[in-house]
């Protein structure tokens, strides 16, 4: 069942059409990430779900109820939508201690004092802040302030959580820790979560579903695996993956059971049938799928090693193949390779083919 439904939503800022027509369904209990480059409309979409931004037309339904309809002009204000949010600035009240920051909304909602106390204790314990409830936000570290904001969400028990780049002010180590905490929060609360980020690692590590956006339009919606391995088009293929996917200009020479594609004059033979129209294609190969050989093998392209960069558990190898830079990633620490001249092979079952307009045609 879909907990959040956006139907043909549009939004303009002055003459700028930021969202030209968005259809999005978010299943109950899922962790969905809106991902895309700056200005693609992620925040605008989230703010329209929250009721902080008024769409121009379309309909928004939350938990089976219409909260906005362009046809009737109805609009439910944010505080009546039953949502929890956490934004980039955690929006803690500086003049209130941690406990009050967490429980303010509960007291205002006239929840009995004893229940508020129980929920406060539980929320503090979940984010490991028990004992710090008497401090002001200014007496806490950035990470602790973040956790107060998370505790406020836990205490409120909303069935929908909206998060806009909540980790962007944190240092790298805290970001990694908080990713795990937010994921745990999602699992424990079982709340439908919409998360906005331009950070693909956050999207890949936390999401059940990733929605990749560009210029207010959805490019692809799918599991992290689908987005990474079966990108819908070149934009998604290049946006996801670090280091970036390698792209080659190629030509399909045979289709069907004896499929073959030629890249830089090299015929990459088929290991299994593959249907694709004959003619020019763009061939995508992820860096970890490039196979490096130290002597010539069949169906290999000659390559020159330009530089070798170990990153700890992996090593990035930058190669030049017929004048084109190609990146390979090997799953171990190497300071250098034994020779400057190597050969690469491209495993046919790891290739992704795109047509002239950039849409994936196979597999
Ligand atoms: P970022 O990652 O930089 O936050 P985003 O994907 O969240 O980007 P939005 O903030 O939703 O993008 O913006 C979508 C488009 O709408 C952009 O072109 C932006 O310049 C424009 N926009 C957003 N808010 C306003 C506003 N208040 N007034 C005018 N234009 C706006």
UniProtKB/TrEMBL annotation:
Gene3D superfamilies: 2.40.50.100, Nucleic acid-binding proteins, P-loop containing nucleotide triphosphate hydrolases. GO terms for molecular function: ABC-type transporter activity; ATP binding; ATP hydrolysis activity. GO terms for cellular component: ATP-binding cassette (ABC) transporter complex, substrate-binding subunit-containing. Pfam families: ABC_tran, OB_MalK. SUPFAM superfamilies: MOP-like, P-loop containing nucleoside triphosphate hydrolases. Residues 4-240 form the ABC transporter domain. Keywords: ATP-binding, Cell membrane, Membrane, Nucleotide-binding, Translocase, Transport. It is a peripheral membrane protein. It is found in: Cell inner membrane. PROSITE patterns: ABC_TRANSPORTER_1 (PS00211), ABC_TRANSPORTER_2 (PS50893). Its main location: membrane. Belongs to the ABC transporter superfamily. This is ABC transporter ATP-binding protein.
């Amino acid at each position: 069942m879909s907990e959040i439904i956006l139907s043909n939503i549009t939004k303009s800022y002055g003459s700028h059409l930021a969202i030209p027509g968005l259809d999005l369904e978010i299943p109950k209990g899922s962790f969905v990430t809106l991902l895309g480059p700056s200005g693609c409309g992620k925040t605008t979409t989230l703010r329209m779900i929250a009721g902080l931004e008024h769409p121009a037309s379309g309909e928004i339904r939350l938990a089976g109820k219409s909260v906005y309809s362009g046809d009737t002009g109805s609009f439910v204000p944010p505080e009546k939508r039953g949502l929890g949010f956490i934004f980039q600035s955690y929006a803690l009240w500086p003049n209130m201690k941690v406990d009050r920051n967490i429980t303010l909304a509960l007291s205002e909602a006239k929840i009995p004092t004893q229940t508020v106390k129980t929920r406060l204790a539980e929320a503090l314990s979940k984010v490991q802040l028990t004992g710090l409830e008497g401090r002001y936000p200014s007496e806490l570290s950035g990470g602790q302030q973040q956790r107060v904001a998370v505790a406020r969400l836990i205490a409120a028990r909303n069935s929908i959580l909206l998060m806009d780049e909540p980790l962007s002010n944190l240092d790298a180590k805290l970001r990694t820790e908080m990713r795990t905490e937010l994921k745990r929060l999602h699992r424990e609360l079982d709340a439908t979560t919409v998360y906005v980020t331009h950070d693909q690692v956050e999207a890949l590590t936390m999401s059940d579903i990733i929605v990749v956006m560009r210029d207010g339009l959805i490019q692809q919606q799918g599991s992290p695996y689908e987005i990474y391995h079966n990108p819908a088009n070149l934009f998604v293929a290049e946006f996801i993956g670090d280091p970036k996917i390698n792209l080659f200009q190629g030509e399909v020479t045979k289709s069907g059971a004896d499929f073959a594609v030629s890249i830089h004059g090299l015929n990459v033979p088929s290991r299994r049938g593959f249907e694709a129209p004959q003619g020019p294609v763009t061939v995508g190969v992820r860096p970890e799928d490039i196979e490096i050989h130290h002597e010539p093998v069949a169906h290999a392209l000659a390559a020159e090693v330009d530089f070798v960069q170990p990153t700890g558990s992996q090593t990035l190898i930058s190669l030049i193949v017929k004048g084109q830079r190609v990146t390979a990633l090997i799953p171990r620490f190497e300071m250098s390779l034994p020779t400057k001249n190597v050969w690469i092979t491209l495993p046919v079952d790891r290739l992704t083919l795109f047509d002239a307009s950039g849409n994936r045609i196979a597999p």
